[in-house]
What we know:
Strand content: 15-25%
Radius of gyration: 14 Å
Strand order of the largest sheet: 1-2-5-4-3
Number of helices: 5
Structural class: alpha+beta
Largest sheet: 5 strands, mixed
Amino acid sequence: xKDPIQQRVRSAVAAALDKKAFDLDVLAVxxxxxxxxxxxxxxxxxxxxxxxxxxGILEKLRKEERVKPLTVxxxxxxxxxxxxxxxxxxxxxxxxCRRFYGLERLWGDAPNVKSKFAAGAAVVQAPRNxxxxxxx
Length: 136
């Protein structure tokens, strides 16, 4: 039997990638906090794209998994949209906002298990022309 939490995360990841999310990470935070089992983090090129990604995730999980979020925050202005599904929290960032908050650094002890959830999907990296600032 498949783990229902992992299936929901897999569906959310697929929905985000369908909307061209990039630099996607899935952090297994369950051993570090009681907030959630997974934090999913991805980037978008614009506030409009963050909204499209969040809408795609919400629609797919509602239709296929029959799940609604406990809360949705940050849709206006859309630089950081948080979708809290209880078992996992999905963070959709614009690139500059993601660099500023650095959740990957904050949760650095959490293993990144993205390959487990993005298997078979084309995981998109940052566009070649995107400027990256050092985050160390």
